[in-house]
Amino acid sequence: MSPIKKIIKWLEERINLTEIFSFFSAFGLYYGEIDTKDSIEEALKKASIKELPPYGKWPHVLGILTFLLFVFQIITGMLLAFYYQPTLLSAYESTREIIRDISFGWLIFNIHRWGADLLIIILIFRIARFFYHQVWEKPRELFWIIGIAILIVSMGSFLTGKLLPFDQNSYWSTVRNLEIIEKIPLIASIFNFLVGGFLIEEGTIIRFYFLHIVVFPLLLWILFYLHFSTVRRVGLSALELKKEEKITFYPSHLFSLLTATFIIIFILVTLSVFFSFRLMGKADPLKTPSGTGPSWFMLFLIPVIEYIPWGLGGFLVLLLLILLFLFPFFGERIFRSKTLTKVLTFFFVFLYLILSFWGFRIK
Amino acid sequence: MSLLSIILSISLCGTCHPDTNSIFQKSIHNTEGVHCVSCHGGDPNTLDEGKAHSQNFRKIPRNLIPQHCGSCHSNPLLMKPYGISTDQLSLYLSSIHGKDFEKSPKKPVCTDCHGVHEIKKKDEPEGLTNPFNVVRTCGKCHGIILQEYLSSYHYEAWKERKNSPICVTCHDPHLPLKFKTADIDKLCGRCHSISRESFMDGPHGKFFYDKGVPSCGDCHGYHSIKRSRTLEISGTCGKCHSKDSKEFKTAEKLSTMLLQTKVEIERTEKILDDAEKIPIAVEDYRARIEEAKTFLMEALILTHSLSVEKNEETLEKARLISKEIEREIHEKMRNLKWRRFGLFVFWFYIFLTIFIIMRYKRWLIKRRSEK
To answer: Of B278, B350, B361, which has the smallest distance from its Cβ to A255's Cβ?
Structure first.
């Protein structure tokens, strides 16, 4: 018996390894159900021959990319948290220390920031992909609802994280973000309840920090768990697949996952080296730098909120948000034609881009 | 007069003169127990106009104001507790204001600068002689000079630091004089002592000692003093020296040296700004560039001696610091390029790993299908 097998046997006599495997599979490691009464060897054998749809291939790749990016955010975020100090006095200095003085701090910081941008881009694409392929139809309503929730929570995590470096850019960008959030009813009330106002004060950083490193990641873990859970129950989106395309978990899926991980590392590191973020000096509430606007994915809200009179823009955004969540329950009746849905996807993406560009011009 | 009658006197005078009374209530005289009767006499205890305006009641005519104010303010027994000097009246009478007043009572008297019933201490914000207000107080009559002053570097520095010269810094408030040109070096030298020393060491100083020209104001202006005219030599040196003269050539040389050093320091500061955004640690360099700026400032002061050698020596120190900083920053920036080299190695590793994973996957699938 090989030494590894001996160690596994020794461990298995004392701990249920299949249960641990089952726990990780709940977070996307493995697609399928696991019988925890089986030995780990049997469970892995069953898992390896389990037939899957081409999981790591387009268009399903967006889902696993999201989760991988989220894991990267958690790892890099934990490393940053070792040195970051969430106070008005030392937030900027500690960020500068991380980037400037700590070994590879600049890389970790840049990977974290680029990772956040990529995560939001991929999540927006993912929702567009769901709409395009009508991934809201029975029994996959929860795919859509959880997808929207993941996008909203990720945006919240992005916005709270944006303030933390506390340089001029992050401070004034947060000020503009808060000006937008303040005008959306209900969201403004929730924010007000959590943070205690729309001014950036002594307590704001610590509250944003808590939301950023505890509340939002926890919510995302729960949402990812729910997503994987519903995937196991109803299966991946029902695309028409040829029989010969069916693949097994091992080696196809596992190795595709590994390849995707390396590709993400490649993209993040390359972006971090060539397009490093630069600190714009410590935040100064009395000195507004030119050209600072809200975060890029919030730009489309500026024309909506500023050009629709009597504060109705905020109500419209709230209404759209509620409709997005409830969409699976009435979407099927409205969007029966697949061609129309596909055309509308491009229309909505185009509208989003146009509004964002307009917002960018008037920010 | 009892305390009760003093209180009554205020309230009764104020019954008929409410506006004057309300202004007077806020004045330093009221706080210190000087009341209506102290200056105007009369009976403060009656509301009968005739009786109130009897008993040596007086309006104080303009031509008697200096003597009237002086009756208390020249009295050492009264002024001693407040630490106010008692030579104000005599200084005033010997000043240009006082002498003009003797010719015409329309010329400035105490109340024109200090106010009448509203007199306040000079450290009160509303006081007319408060350093923040005194420029406007003088400017009521000296409008053109006020405009010149407001365009000057002295005023620019006042807005920023509140400790640079205002009217009364150079012109004693009770002895305003037109300065003799021969004394102006002493006046400016009260603050700019090193500049004066440098000036007196140079050829200008020696000439000034004999002939009284050129004075500080000839190059810098008087009330409209500009920060530095070293770099505008045609407008300053060119006034006395022809462009072909040896003196003008020296001035040109000095100006070029100073300008070059200034440009070099500014360039280094810009490099520091860029480096800070990367970020590279620049705090030490910032302190060193301040040192370079100090040398530049020292050289600007030494310009008064018109010595190229002395200036060159000081400016060289500034340029050396500037160059050292630039070299060190560039070195640090070059180190950043190693990141890109590291990236190429990283790419190679990533592609190799992906290649191995894909080959291994294909091999495993092939082996499984063969089984």
So the answer is: B361
- What is the residue range of A281's domain? 55-234+245-291
Confidence at residue A289, expressed as pLDDT on a 0 to 100 scale: 87
On whether any CB of chain A is under 8 Å from the CB of B279, the answer is yes
What are the backbone dihedrals phi and psi of residue B91, each rounded to the nearest 5 degrees, phi first? -60, -45
In the DSSP assignment, the letter for residue A246 is: -
B283 and B216 assigned to the same domain: no
- In this structure, is residue A23 part of a structural domain? no
Residues of chain A with pLDDT under 50: 56
Domain boundary among B178, B196, B211: B178
Cα gap A121→A297, rounded to integer Å: 9
Q: Which of A250, A259, A280 lies nearest to residue B354, judging by beta carbons?
A: A259
Interface of B with A in 346-365 (CB under 8 A): 346-347, 350, 353-354, 357-358, 360-361, 364-365
Question: How far is the C-alpha of A136 from the C-alpha of A325, rounded, in Å?
Answer: 11
Cβ-nearest to B343 among A101, A270, A280:
A270
Give which of A334, A336, A327, A333 is closest to A144, Cα–Cα: A327
Give B337 to chain A, closest Cα distance, Å: 10
Q: Indicate whether A176 belongs to any domain.
A: yes
Q: How many separate domains does chain A show? A: 1
Q: How confident is the model at residue B7 (pLDDT cuts 50, 70, 90)?
A: low
- Summarised one tens digit per residue, pLDDT across range A222-233 is 999 999 888 878
* Smallest Cα distance from A191 to chain B, Å: 32
Is position B205 within any domain? yes
Tens of pLDDT along B35-62? 888 899 888 888 888 888 987 888 899 9
Residue B283 has pLDDT above 90, yes or no: no
- Using CA atoms, how far apart are residues A152 and B184, in angstroms rounded to an integer? 73
Using the beta-carbon criterion (under 8 Å), do A255 and B357 form an inter-chain contact? yes
Residue type, A122: I
Residue from A57, A246, A273, A274 to probe the interface with B (highest B Cβ count within 10 Å): A273
**Residue at B197 is within a domain:** yes
Contacts of A255 in chain B (CB under 8 A): 357-358, 360-361, 364
Q: Is residue A84 part of a domain?
A: yes
Q: Is residue B93 part of a domain?
A: yes
Domain of residue B217 covers 180-224
User: What's the confidence (pLDDT) of residue A270?
Assistant: 93
Whole-number Å distance between alpha carbons of B359 and B291: 63
**Cβ-Cβ contacts under 8 Å, A279 against chain B:** 276-277, 279
Angstrom distance (rounded) from CA A287 to CA A291: 13
Tell me, yes or no, whether B293 lies in a domain.
Answer: yes
Same domain assignment for residues B166 and B187? no
Tally of domains within chain B: 4
Give the pLDDT mean for B257-271. Answer: 94
Digit-coded pLDDT (tens) for B24-34: 999 999 999 89
- Is A16 part of any domain? no
- What CA–CA distances, in Å, run from A98 to A112, B94, B193, B197, B282? 12, 70, 48, 51, 15
Which CATH number goes with the domain that contains A137?
1.20.810.10
pTM of the model: 0.68
Q: Which tokens go with B182?
A: 């021969």
CB contact under 8 A, A251 and B361: yes
Residue predicted with more confidence, B228 or B322: B322
Q: Are B151 and B192 in a shared domain? A: no
Mean pLDDT on B323-343: 87
Q: Are residues B86 and B158 in the same domain?
A: yes
* Across B102-106, B235-239, B264-268, B354-358, least confident range: B235-239
CB contact under 8 A, B347 and A270: yes
Q: Number of Cβ pairs closer than 8 Å across A and B? A: 52
- Report chain B's mean pLDDT, rounded to a whole number: 88
Mapped onto helix, strand or coil, the DSSP state of residue B72 is helix
